[in-house]
Design brief:
CATH class of the largest domain: Alpha Beta
Number of strands: 5
Largest sheet: 5 strands, mixed
Radius of gyration: 28 Å
Helix content: 40-55%
Order of helices and strands: HHHHHHHHHHHHHEEEHEHE
Strand order of the largest sheet: 3-2-1-4-5
Strand content: 5-15%
Number of domains: 3
Shape: extended
Distance between the termini: 37 Å
CATH topology of the largest domain: Nucleotidyltransferase, domain 5
Oligomer: single chain
Length: about 300
């Protein structure tokens, strides 16, 4: 469940959409995101050269057959000390089990290394001082380059600073300093969580509003509709469709604001309209119509998008 949550968060889906897709309350989704500062935790990694599951299974079989550590090591191309340590750490010759040994190895796997600011106290103090002065991470990086050159001791990326602020479990930067950042957000968001970022990264082959027919622009024909998503209380939502000429309003109830729900609902609404009214649809700018090609294929109606941040 958490893997799906993080995958959707990285893709730019909102907390409410993620909530609906994974079947958890929005508050629960936010709690998980906030604990990690909105940054997906890195997976544990075993040391390079660690024994594989297949090797552990072979060790188990050879021990049952009564083979010596030397024989097992020669068969696997490993040092005798590696085999001896592996067996002794996991119950000895009589109790060794490959699956148990693999689970223990995973539990002992190295966590991601300590973050850069924790390893360099002088760099950390400089960054903290500038954050308290409400400098942005990008400004701090520029300041360090200007005053300390390319020396590695005082080199850091703006992303590392952001991570140090938001990932509270690192305990490197006081959490209250996140309020000094210009966004004042409690969790880290990437560009896909902004209207501009969504437009650029996810709505593919979007046709701009400037390309829609003149009849839609000057309201000379019926059937050219403008759509929008309206959010209500208790995580409810509806789509509104307004004919530009007649101003007739159609309301479509939605179970979710995700494009996989919105597109079929709109296509179904169009099947109940007079085909002569199937002109064009102009959508606000949200990701609800990210699957606009599917909508056009199902309804025969071309979709045009307003420019980002336009009213």
């Amino acid at each position: 469940m958490k893997a799906d949550l993080w995958r959707r968060w990285r893709a730019g889906e909102s907390i409410s959409v993620i909530s609906g897709q994974i079947g958890k309350p929005p508050g629960s989704v936010f709690t998980v995101l906030k604990h990690h500062g909105g940054i997906a935790p890195e997976p544990r990694k075993e040391r390079a050269g660690s024994l594989t599951m297949a090797e552990r299974e072979e060790i188990s079989r050879r021990l049952c057959a009564g083979d010596s550590y030397n024989a097992i090591a020669a068969l696997l191309g490993r040092a005798v000390s590696t085999i001896s340590r592996e067996v002794n750490q996991n119950g000895g010759r009589g109790a060794y089990r490959a699956t148990v040994a693999q689970e223990r190895a995973f539990d002992r796997a190295r966590r991601p290394k300590q973050c850069l600011l924790a390893r360099r106290p002088s760099l950390r103090e400089t960054v903290l001082a500038l954050l308290k002065e409400e400098w942005s991470p990008e400004q701090i990086v520029g300041h360090l380059r200007l005053n300390h050159g390319d020396g590695p001791a005082m080199r850091v990326s703006h992303e590392t600073i952001y991570r140090s602020v938001y990932v509270t479990r690192w305990k490197v930067v006081p959490r209250e300093l996140s309020k000094r950042l210009r966004t004042s957000r409690p969790i880290r968001k990437n560009r896909r969580h902004t209207v501009k970022g969504q437009w650029r990264s996810q709505i593919t082959d979007a046709r701009p509003i400037e390309e829609r027919p003149l009849a839609a622009e000057d309201r000379s024909e019926f059937g050219h509709l403008e759509g929008d998503l309206v959010i209500g209380s208790n995580n409810s939502q509806v789509a509104t469709l307004v004919d530009r000429k007649s101003r007739f309003l159609t309301v479509v109830k939605l179970a979710s604001r995700h494009t996989t729900v919105v597109v079929p609902a709109l296509a179904e609404a169009y099947t109940r309209m007079d085909p002569r009214l199937h002109g064009t649809l102009t959508w606000d700018r949200g990701m609800e119509l990210a699957s606009h090609k599917r909508f056009t294929a199902d309804s025969g109606v071309d979709v045009f998008f307003a420019a980002p941040r336009s009213p």
